[in-house]
Specification:
By secondary structure, the protein is an alpha+beta fold. The protein has 14 helices and 12 strands.
């Protein structure tokens, strides 16, 4: 019996036991939906978020002080002088690579912002920044405007509020043009940021206020602030080369000796992308576990159905053997039948997976339409594998039946 004939016989057998076949195929489909559907949703959301975060890491790097957490195998860490504001300003002036750069600093993480009798919790971050800060951090303004070059240069008392701060102090009121105060000084509100959620510069991206960096310098009360320069390169593929150029220039500015390590840290601004990859990786593992458990249940169900099918068709098997069918051909027939059932379930599962995996991210506004061809192929291969594993024992049993005893079976 040829493979095509075996497929026909398998479909014929499926039609004769349609209800249990549909139930088994549905279980297989659920396993594929759990696997491919979840992975499709992950890829769709990851593609969208990665696109949104492009300005935060795909083409930019940071220059900052060496992290105190860096240790060298338990050895005492060498302490370098902190990076000065004038050094980063000099870097901006001398760096000739095509880029957009900005300097920022954190004045406080525990500020209270006041307006008349209203006051925020003492958990507001106060950042000093130049005119490029919003662009480099991918912040959008909900209302108002950015700083002007003149306001940054003169240290004007103007402020841009995070949305949480604005809602707390200006409930049902227009904040633009009004004044707020912190650290004993009054600031005119010129802008309000759009909601950032957990994707801002920090987990409290909505609980921050931004002032001109020269203003922050004047408010530091002789306390040494830690500054950071972020540069976004026009051509992403040249990022490594641009970082090399920046390293050489910064070493010259900092007067780092030849052969010694840098007294600063220069890194790609891709921490959010890395975090996103880690989360997506764990979600893939969860999807694989769910898919495996569901497909394992489907394989047990399919094996049971095939065992029943072998028993019901014992006489048919005896007739086939009497007409010359070899044990290998009988085994092949039942294996193909099991695979056909799995492919039917897998096919429907893939279709629903693509639909559900894309509909959910699109509805919540976190994804675009994605077809994960790799996972579709993997899902179908898994279906074939499930069919082979589930159908092997029933097919082996059918192939070993004695033709004489099978013909006597009632």
């Amino acid at each position: 019996m040829h493979i095509v004939e075996n497929v026909r016989e398998g479909i014929k057998s499926i039609k004769s036991n349609l209800l249990r076949t549909v139930i088994t195929a549905a279980i297989v489909a659920l396993g594929i939906i759990a696997l491919v559907g979840t992975l499709t949703a992950i890829e769709a959301m990851k593609a969208k978020v990665s696109e949104s975060l492009a300005g935060l890491g795909a083409n930019s790097f940071d220059i900052k002080d060496i992290s105190r957490r860096r240790q060298n195998a338990g050895k005492a860490q060498k302490v370098y002088p902190i990076i000065k504001y004038k050094e980063l300003k000099k870097f901006k002036q001398l760096y000739r690579y095509q880029s957009t750069s900005g300097i920022s600093t954190n004045l406080s993480w525990t500020a209270e912002i006041k307006r008349f009798s209203k006051i925020t919790n003492p958990n507001v971050g106060v950042f000093g920044a130049d005119v490029n800060y919003l662009i480099l951090e991918n912040y959008d303004l909900d209302k108002g405007r950015n700083f002007s070059e003149l306001e940054v240069k003169n240290g004007a008392h103007v402020v841009i509020l995070g949305i949480s701060v604005a809602n707390k102090l200006f409930e049902n009121e227009e904040p633009l043009g009004e004044e707020v105060s912190f650290f004993g000084r009054k600031f005119k509100v010129i802008g309000v940021l759009k909601e950032q959620g957990g994707l801002g510069n920090n987990s409290g991206g909505d609980r921050q206020v931004i002032i001109p960096i020269e203003t922050a310098n004047a408010m530091s009360s002789q306390r040494a602030l830690r500054y950071q320069l972020t540069a976004a390169i026009d051509r992403t593929e040249e990022l490594d080369f641009a970082m090399g150029e920046a390293t050489g220039l910064m070493r010259a500015i900092r007067k780092d000796q030849l052969g010694k390590e840098e007294s600063f840290e220069i890194t790609k601004s891709d921490s959010l992308s890395g975090t996103l990859d880690d989360i997506a990786g764990w979600m893939r593992i969860v999807a694989l576990v769910l898919g495996f458990v569901t497909l394992f249940g489907a394989s047990i169900c399919l094996m049971n159905i095939m065992m029943v099918s072998v028993t019901e068709r014992t006489r048919e098997i005896g007739v086939r053997k009497a007409l010359g069918a070899t044990p290998a051909k009988i085994k092949q027939q039942f294996l193909i039948e099991a695979i056909v059932i799995c492919i039917m379930g897998g096919g429907f599962g893939v279709i629903f997976s693509i639909m559900l995996g894309n509909v959910v991210p699109i509805l919540i506004g976190a994804g675009s339409f994605t077809v994960p061809w790799l996972w579709i192929i993997v899902g179908l291969i898994v279906c074939i594998g499930v069919g082979l594993v589930s159908g092997y024992l029933p097919a082996r049993k059918a192939a070993r039946l004695d033709p004489i005893e099978s013909l006597r079976f009632e």
